[in-house]
């Protein structure tokens, strides 16, 4: 499959995955674990950062580190490790803030026309 097909569509695919997950959850009454939403959010943030990287030519590391850490924590939870909600909220909040700082730093480096 040609990967150029996904260029400019990855964030929208992530939003679609969120919507499908929410609809299935509502209609089928299934409970979607919080780690699934955390992983989707991390991927969405990573895709946004990737698009900004294309514009700024800045290959910063903060957002990508936050994405990898969030996906890693979600994967650990998927395999049955239970963390308290207080710890998860703190970790996910800190990682999200760190990721947003990376996006902010990259936006500063976009050339002004």
* Relative helix content: over 70%
Tertiary shape: globular
Please summarize the sheet with the most strands.
Answer: none
**Alpha-carbon Rg, integer:** 16 Å
Extract low-pLDDT stretches.
none
Task: Tell me the β content.
Answer: under 5%
Number of strands: 0
Distance between the termini: 36 Å
Number of helices: 4
Write the layout of secondary structure elements.
Layout: H1 10-28, H2 34-56, H3 62-78, H4 85-108
Helix pairs in contact: 1-2, 2-3, 2-4, 3-4
Describe this protein's structure.
This protein has 113 residues and is mainly alpha-helical. Helix content is 73%, strand content 0%. The protein has helices spanning 10-28, 34-56, 62-78, 85-108.
List descriptors.
113 residues, mainly alpha, 4 helices, 73% helix, globular
Task: Describe, in short, the structure shown.
The chain is mainly alpha-helical. The chain is built from four helices and no strands.
